[in-house]
Amino acid sequence: MTGSSGVVGSAVADEMHRAGWQVRGWDMRPGPWTTHLGDLRDAKLRARAVAGADTVVHTAALHAPHVGAVPDAEFRAVNVEATAALLEQATEYGVRQLVYTSTTSVYGHALVPDDRAVWVNESLQPRPRDIYDETKLAAEALVRTHRTPATTILRIARCFPEPPATQAAHRLYRGVDVRDVATAHRLAAENHKTTGTFNIAGPLLFHPTDTRQLWQNAPALLTHRAPETAALFHRHNWPIPTRIDRVYDSSKAHRELGYHPSYDVTTLAATA
């Protein structure tokens, strides 16, 4: 597990451990699941971490908040070149499977609506808008074309900590609980014969036919589709977005991996 001390990596490691996996973690920062401290680009450390592993879960990366603060060359070195080296090491040591943590951010400019919300499934062509998107998409291409080990790419939706009102709004269409993200990674590891690219987002409230109304009058549509959820927003004084510009669809992960997101606005409200 790379990035085992991060928000996503630590949640995935915890989920894998509870499911009976022996977890070996690798990060530059200490953490409860991190057994190997060091840089992803350190070849000797990489060999020690990968040797004997059945599955590699690769969550480590530079992220969107680093854009502008970290040189583009560093993004390429960490997100692309280190991923390529990890794939080669995994092949050398006979790793069966690699699960790669990507992001829905790779869709980039394709997420910009015209006269309706964008329905985002895996058939939508990514149009990267910054170095983060570019390097994550480039790493995806490396992972996808590598013959061994078998590979699965998870494009995860927004899951980092935010104020409750913001998180609740995002959970309607573009967010996901990190615990559901962790479950998706476990399912990908368990279904090692099912490869491909999957969006991982929260529970789906809307239909593909809703895209025009989502853009024109999201509160009315939410009240129609999910009245209990709309009532929760009113009860907590959380503003419902007047417009929703996109919907992340995880139906493919549901069909092929058995992914059923459990944490919605109701569970968020219970802890707010």
UniProtKB/TrEMBL annotation:
Q: Where is the NAD-dependent epimerase/dehydratase domain?
A: 1-158
Domain of life, per lineage: Bacteria
Query: Which protein is depicted?
Result: NAD-dependent epimerase/dehydratase domain-containing protein
The protein's matches in SUPFAM superfamilies, at most eight in alphabetical order, are given as: NAD(P)-binding Rossmann-fold domains
Q: Which InterPro entries does the UniProt record give?
A: Epimerase_deHydtase, Lipid_A_modif_metabolic_enz, NAD(P)-bd_dom_sf
Pfam (any one) = Epimerase
